[in-house]
């Protein structure tokens, strides 16, 4: 049976408590509109540009107020809730950029730690060194929903197509890509990459995003998207905070994969060798 999914688009600030409240209000609105699977962006609970302040504000999972708050909210509304990511302090002094799937009973059904670190000098003048504060994840995650299997990713993962292929081949028919894409890279690549990941895998892609100007002059792109397995954009949030919805029919996954069964056509091949100029 089809179900309604929702992506939440927010402009997160520097403090955890107001961000929990802001996201929770939108999650409740989405649930009131009948959404059964709701997804929030990367860094739902904090965007703090000062790295030392970020470390100081980041609790361990067992002590994190947002974990308890969102678990209670999922239970209260009887929804499947993906909190796109939250910073979780680890024993080595770094943090995990961790996505959570809360089940309708409030239990944590799955966790995913972001694998690919955004260590980039963006041409707009911003520099990002995610690996300075975060420990990369090492495990791809596919988990069960009532309607099919969910593959979990975060933001910069989007540029690594092999991860999405692996999730799809492990059974995922829905992919989550919570993000805080920069405005500069978002304008160039966000829509194209998300449509490509949907088309390559024959999956629905749910991609909630941060939007607007944040502390420290950071600008995120917005345009949360829900993309169908054939590549059609079902909903685009534009630039304002809010909610987008789409009806998800998993038959469309089966139809897309039947028309283009590329997931069944893998072949082994030798990696290219360095070529020498003629005559050497």
Automatic annotation (TrEMBL):
Q: Which UniProt keywords apply?
A: Hydrolase
Q: Which InterPro entries match?
A: C-N_Hydrolase, C-N_Hydrolase_sf, Nit1/2_C-N_Hydrolase
The CN hydrolase domain, residue ranges: 3-250
Q: Pfam families, alphabetically?
A: CN_hydrolase (PF00795)
Answer yes or no on keyword Hydrolase.
yes
Any GO molecular function: hydrolase activity, acting on carbon-nitrogen (but not peptide) bonds, in linear amides
The record's PANTHER family line, in alphabetical order, gives: DEAMINATED GLUTATHIONE AMIDASE, NITRILASE-RELATED
Q: Would you tell me the protein name for this molecule? A: Putative amidohydrolase
Organismal lineage? Bacteria, Pseudomonadati, Pseudomonadota, Alphaproteobacteria, Rhodospirillales
